[in-house]
Description:
Layout: H1 15-27, H2 29-32, H3 41-76, H4 81-107, H5 113-148, H6 151-163, H7 170-178, H8 183-192, H9 195-216
Amino acid sequence: MSEPAAAPRPDTSDMFAVHGVFRDTLGAAPSLVGGIAPDDAERVALIANYYENILSFLESHHDGEEVLVFPLLRERCDGAGELIDHMDEQHHEALALLQEAKAALAAWPSGDAAAQQAAEARLEALGSHLGDHLSEEEQKVLPLAGEYLSMEEWGALPGHGMANFHGDKIWLILGLIRERMTDEQRAMMSEHMPPPALEMWNGFGEQAFKEYSTVVEVPVVNHA
Length: 224
């Protein structure tokens, strides 16, 4: 009698696109934040809001991992506890840096040069911390998630992230992720998006993202 077919496992490589958003946007802080004339209030407000959305996405992204991924790996993967503890600790450190960056962004629209420098420095500090964390997560956590999580469990992450995103431009986040995906990954993402979100993206979100990217001059990196 033949053995039952193993349940299909998720392709966790789509997380590289999400991580690419954080690497690229935070890595662009010296030019996007530091390159603005202090008296350009309109541009300051634009870029401050841009990064407020990025930070909100980072919060919801980490929350999704802590709620949907880490507990399952603790439960199912012998010996993963120490690694997950380490990831949790890095998340706590990132959250502290994130809160500092949020406070600096809130103070920046005052137009003060020192506030601008502080916003740039806090975003760079967060990006530097995330650089090590994201690489370690890609090397050690994603393979475990691909082995021990089901397709449905991994597929719940995007919906959780969107539901817990508190920025005002969800289409910005979708666009940033999608431009770093392969065609196959974009199709899979659309399949798992809640119907209202997919309707929003197809209705106006994609065009809004393209127009906004032109104004902000968002760094585009194609990893496909």
